Amino acid sequence: MELRHLEQIVAVCRSGSFSGAAKALGIAQPTLSKSISRLEAKLGVKLFERTNANARPTVYAQFVADHAASLLQNVTALSHQLEQMAKGEAGLLRIGVGPATRLRPLPQLVRKAAQAFPQLQFVTRYAGPNLMMRALRAGKFDLVFCHREIAASQQDLIRVKIFEDRYVVVARQDNPACHGTPLSAQEFLRLPLASAGITPDFDAWLGAPGEYQKRKLEAFLSDDYDLIRQMAMTPGYVARGPRFVFEQELARGELLEIPLERDFQYECWMLTTSALWRSPIVKAIAGLAK
User: For 42-56, 69-83, 103-117, 218-232, which range has the lowest pLDDT when averaged over its residues?
Assistant: First the structure.
């Protein structure tokens, strides 16, 4: 017995006739009649009592129909789920993030994506840049979010710019550097810094610091921006990162920006492989993240 036989038996039971069932199934009535007759001959039982206009199910056909209805519903649901998976609307999406991108765009993205794709499961993992890129290429991540400096060197991957911000240096209100003229590189190097590391453009602006100045630059290094924010509230310290990291503290007036002689741009990028970029869900995620 094949799946089409179950569909045919259920259709005849529901319509009460071969003509009605054939119309519901979208096939010719003679085709349906021959299919049921062959099945009856194969099984050695009579499924329907036939009259000129009607078809009454026997106990055998009713038994099949009672069990087949739920089975056919499951088949329909399974087909729908497979279509969703093919479109990327169901299944598993694995996302890699870094220190800043776990704060933005990840939380906002997951909320939007969960509403847009309720059948989609999410796994997010924090990783350093080198590990993140290796995991993406090895198929352990479907996509990753990182800053411009990492994205620029990954030319074999699909790269999509998600948003722009700017790097800021912040400190407590009582820090004198908050209230003076924009700091030069040499003036900045006198301040103990809390950061997740120095970006290449900022490093170039700083020049060649001496040992004492290097110790100031590395006064507090962490890949946890929660700790960096806490250090920004410590007397004497300054902190550097994308502005959105300190957005709440700046809005409440707990931290102030320290002006520098030069501005530095932050860019968030989404990276994925060429093969995964063909997935509609990956492209949809890029749109939701912006």
Answer: 69-83
